[in-house]
């Protein structure tokens, strides 16, 4: 019974006799006792804040933008919060929000946040983008910023999307790959022309793309055959091709055919091969978790072969293992490593002791992760309210975010 319903009942019975009041009190006591006995240690005796957390909607997907966060709840609802200077929250304003707010009534299957824009796929397969659009990264044929979602073309076969600082790429259900936005360093994979694309351009002729990830000025993607391909700027070796410079169209990284995941940061990249974790590119903050200033080809991180998920953005990286543990490393000026400090880390450090980090994972100057119970936890920079706790106070360790 909800508190609201209970209040109405108390009003209705306020004029009852003392005997009935006593009986009602006795019944209430029985209900409380029964609840305490049946709830067990998981819920009995919890405080108000814990009860709110237990009742919060479960989260199935999360993304961290430059200073904003968006998440999809189990019912398909889209929630966003944090910095909103370009309209990247999609709520029709440019006002920052320090707590989650639902964006419209549509249902969504995927969402990804760039520096100042956000894109998502709805359950009907349509693709929508919103926020900053000065380089055409919204894909709506203009360079006009939008504070509410606008549809990208008319296709209803979009499967997943990745939003970078000024360009966006997405994969359709037919395995084709499309990119648009800023192309100054050939990060769209279609050559060095056009300089800006305001609508999606198909990347090559392959139709077996499985996933894609957009960095600051480079892009990497995995095909269904397990091969890894990268293109764009390789100022620090972030393409993994063994050279510095630029690559105008997709080029295969090595010859391995067992890549299952890839994630592109500012100028570094990480990926998973048969459970082993590999990173390459710029390493000024230790974001490769290996020694040296940069690496132009993938180098394995440690010897573990139980990595299941990896995320990188900016100059930090996080990854979870099959045992449910969470590890982060790299730049930590805002506490985005989540280890309780602001010390940069050149090797993975475990985030707390929880072994329930098996859901979504995202990191930028702040990080967020989903646990097995659908609970969402965030940490790091909070200058725009992107941690969703109602404040702008930085947090170097995870704290749970409660969707209303």
TrEMBL record:
Keyword annotations of the record: Signal
Signal peptide range: 1-44
Keyword Nucleotide-binding annotated: no
SUPFAM superfamilies, alphabetized: RCC1/BLIP-II
Cited Pfam families: RCC1, RCC1_2
GO MF term list: guanyl-nucleotide exchange factor activity
Cytoplasm found in the keyword field: no
InterPro entries: Ran_GTPase-activating, RCC1/BLIP-II, Reg_chr_condens
One Gene Ontology cellular component: cytoplasm
Record-given protein name: Alpha-tubulin suppressor
Organism: Micromonospora humi
């Amino acid at each position: 019974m909800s508190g609201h319903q209970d209040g109405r009942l108390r009003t209705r019975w306020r004029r009852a006799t003392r005997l009935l009041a006593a009986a009602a009190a006795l019944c209430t006591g029985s209900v409380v006792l029964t609840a305490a006995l049946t709830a067990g240690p998981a819920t009995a005796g919890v405080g108000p804040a814990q009860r709110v957390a237990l009742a919060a909607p479960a989260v199935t997907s999360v993304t961290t933008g430059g200073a904003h966060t968006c998440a999809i709840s189990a019912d398909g609802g889209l929630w966003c919060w944090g910095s909103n200077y370009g309209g990247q929250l999609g709520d029709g304003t440019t006002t920052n929000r320090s707590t989650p707010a639902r964006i419209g009534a549509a249902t969504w299957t995927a969402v990804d946040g760039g520096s100042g824009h956000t894109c998502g796929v709805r359950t009907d397969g349509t693709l929508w983008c919103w926020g900053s659009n000065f380089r055409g990264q919204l894909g709506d044929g203009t360079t006009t910023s939008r504070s509410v979602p606008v549809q990208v073309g008319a296709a209803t076969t979009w499967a997943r999307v990745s939003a970078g600082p000024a360009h966006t790429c997405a994969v359709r259900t037919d395995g084709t790959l499309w990119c648009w936005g800023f192309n100054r360093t050939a990060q769209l994979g279609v050559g060095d022309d056009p300089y800006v694309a305001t609508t999606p351009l198909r990347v090559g002729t392959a139709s077996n793309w499985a996933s894609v990830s957009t960095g600051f000025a480079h892009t990497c993607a995995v095909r269904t055959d397990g091969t890894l391909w990268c293109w764009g700027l390789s100022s620090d070796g972030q393409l993994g091709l063994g050279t510095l410079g630029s690559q105008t169209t997709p080029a295969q990284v090595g010859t391995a055919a067992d890549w299952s995941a890839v994630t592109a940061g500012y100028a570094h990249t990480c990926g998973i091969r048969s459970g082993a974790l590999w990173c390459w590119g710029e390493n000024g903050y230790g974001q490769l978790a290996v020694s040296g200033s940069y690496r132009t080809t993938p180098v394995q991180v440690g010897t573990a072969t139980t990595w299941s998920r990896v995320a990188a953005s900016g100059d930090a990286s996080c990854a979870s293992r099959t045992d449910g543990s969470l590890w982060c490393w790299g730049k930590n000026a805002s506490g985005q490593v989540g280890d309780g400090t602001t010390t940069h880390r050149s090797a993975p450090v475990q985030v707390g002791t929880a072994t329930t980090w098996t859901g979504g994972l995202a990191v930028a100057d702040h990080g967020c992760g989903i646990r097995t119970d659908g609970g969402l936890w965030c940490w790091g920079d909070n200058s725009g309210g992107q941690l969703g706790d109602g404040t702008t106070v930085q947090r170097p360790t995870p704290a749970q975010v409660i969707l209303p």
